[in-house]
Protein: Glyoxalase/Bleomycin resistance protein/Dioxygenase superfamily protein
Organism: Saltatorellus ferox
Amino acid sequence: MLHHVEIYVADLERTLSFWTHFMERLGYEPDRWSGGMNYRRGDDPYLSFLAAPAEHLDPGYHRKRVGLNHLAFRGRSREHVDELAAWIKEAGHTMLYENRYPFATGPDYYALFCEDPDRIKVEVVAP
């Protein structure tokens, strides 16, 4: 269905410090290029990050504005989602709905919700 998703970010290196570790934990390989970074896993759609032009940084990103709300990924298992949640907390990233983890959206939906450095909401769902 999708070929790739490309996202502009405020600070590319800060963004990559989150996404590289996150995507490697999901089995994606970083692929640096002159304008940014792609994260690839086989023939799956890939994710690409680029630095936003300075004149387009204001007012900044927020998931409740028109545009992307969040990115959701499949985890391998509940244990895998728990490992990602532990890394998010240990690394000092923002975990969303932590007081309701792992059932923030209901008793049959095991998932992690967090934010990247630009406050893009990220979800990882257990099978």
